[in-house]
Amino acid sequence: MTFFAQFQIWLGAFLVLALFSFLYKDNPFYKLAEHVYAGLSAGYYVGLVWQSVIIQQLVDPMFDDGQWWLIFPGLLGTLMFARFFAKWSWVSRISLAFVMGNTAGVFLISQLHGLILPQTMSTMLSLNPKNGFAATLLALVTVVGVISTLIYFYFSKEHIGVLGGTARVGIWFIMISFGAHFGYTVMARISLLIGQVQFLLFDWGGSIKQIF
Amino acid sequence: MSFWEKVSNIDRRWIYFLVAVSVVFPMLVVIKFPIGITPEAKQLYDAVEALPDSSIVFLTFDYYPSTLAETEPISIAALNQMFRKNMKIITMTTVPLGGPSIAERVTRKLANKYNKVYGIDFVNLGYKANYVAVLKGMGSSIESIYPADNAGTPLKDLPLMSKVRNYNDVKFIFVVADNGIVDYWISIVNAQYGTPVGAGVTAVMAPKMYSFVEAKQLTGLLGGMKGAAEYERLVNHEGTATRGMDAQSMVHLLIIFFVIVGNIGYFATRKSGRSGQV
């Protein structure tokens, strides 16, 4: 392993341990690691956007390929900086209006065609018993779950009587969903811990073994 | 102070300590808890396996370095399967921090193992800002969105990219992600261009994704480290996810224990609190 690779591992291990030290109590090492992370992320992001957006998508096509019309989106982007000047901040609304209109147009189709319609269709299931007991039962659970949950979020009428009873069934479905989300979230967070412990034990541990 | 009151007021650092022990111990002493294969993981594996050899596929690295433990093993397992089938792989990312370099590092390492050549067998397109425009634009022309690859080489100089114009030339899209980008791969690319999409996501995202599998908008799903371990098993490549699952199971047992003890403690102290008031 090269000196640089070793240095990377030791620096990584120091930062991981510094961040973990917060579990005991707040301390300067934790603060240092936190600020290093925030500063590095911001610096890296600025450099990346400069290269991948300003240079590759604006400057190079304009000057190398003669795509002069890119001056217009370039100007719209520049107008956004007017927000820093109180007197001229209204100018940035022109760019924002373009972004909002564009986004609404793109998302209207993708959300409707790609999410709402297929998801709604997938809840319209046959309850015909000829499909088999298990399939019918699952279809019934889905249909009851969707309808009762939707009724829970229907606030134009007081939740009493049949409406209230169905809404309470909806709460049960929502609670089960929260439970599934919670279980998966626990697994996700533990996975992140496992990843860092694997790094400390095997990568950093291997490096320590190699040096000593 | 009763026993249950003491338990209810335990210093939380003892819990951190027990969690740490539960994670470290299985890494030093291998237990090998069983790893079952879910139908969703098998569906994804079968979908890739069913593609003809040398098919052109997309593999995305839509994740940040903070979730590497869950997502990177999925990418590695997928690359093993794809390179083994001599597929032509195009990698890309919509995540600026880490995505392009993770794709480069992981793909090059696996490519060396299978003697694959850059530009012929695989290409890394890298990152482009504004993912909605990127996903939509690639439906017309990939080259209009990515004139050059991650290293700045023009696409026209890469033999693999001469066979690919847009999604019509891509047989399958394997999305590995830790954020909401999967929704857009489904709602823009799958829904509007019909290209099959399979996903490996972090565990936090997995519950939401099941509805897409049910609606047949996703062809298979891997959820978190467990999903990664399943895929490693399916492609017969034991990696960090499989090794991490012992620790995962140990911590889950510990958390179940905490939940039971916490509930008993809650009810026991509530009862004594009531009797105290009387």
Describe the fold and architecture:
The complex is a heterodimer of chains A (212) and B (278). With 212 residues, chain A is an all-alpha fold. Chain A has a domain at 126-212. Chain A contains six helices and no strands. In chain A, helix 1 packs across helix 2 (28-63), helix 1 packs across helix 6 and helix 5 crosses helix 6 (161-211). The longest helix of chain A has 51 residues, at 161-211. Chain A is extended. With 278 residues, chain B is α/β, with parallel strands linked by helices. Chain B folds into two domains: 3-30 and 245-275; 39-238, 3-Layer(aba) Sandwich (Rossmann fold), CATH 3.40.50. Helix content of chain B is 53%, strand content 12%. Chain B has helices at 3-8, 12-28, 39-49, 68-84, 99-113, 131-137, 142-145, 181-193, 206-214, 224-234, 240-277, and strands at residues 56-62, 88-93, 122-127, 172-177, 197-201, 221-223. Chain B has a six-stranded parallel sheet with strand order 3-2-1-4-5-6, sandwiched between helices. In chain B, helix 2 (12-28) packs antiparallel against helix 11, helix 4 (68-84) runs parallel beside helix 5 and helix 10 runs antiparallel to helix 11 (240-277). Classes of the chains: A mainly alpha (212), B alpha/beta (278). At the A-B interface, helix 2, helix 4 and helix 6 of A face helix 2, helix 4, helix 8, helix 9 and helix 10 of B.
What is the CATH architecture term of the largest domain in chain B? 3-Layer(aba) Sandwich
- CATH hierarchy class name of the largest domain in chain B: Alpha Beta
Order of helices and strands of chain B: HHHEHEHEHHEHEHEHH
Summarize the biggest pleated sheet of chain B: 6 strands, parallel
Number of strands of chain B: 6
DSSP, total strands of chain A? 0
Q: Mean of residue pLDDT of chain A? A: 90
Specify the number of helices of chain A: 6
Distance between the termini of chain A: 14 Å
Outline the low-pLDDT stretches of chain A. none
The domain count of chain B comes to 2
Helix content of chain B: 40-55%
In percent terms, what proportion of residues of chain A is strand?
Answer: under 5%
Structural class of chain B: alpha/beta
Work out the helicity level of chain A: over 70%
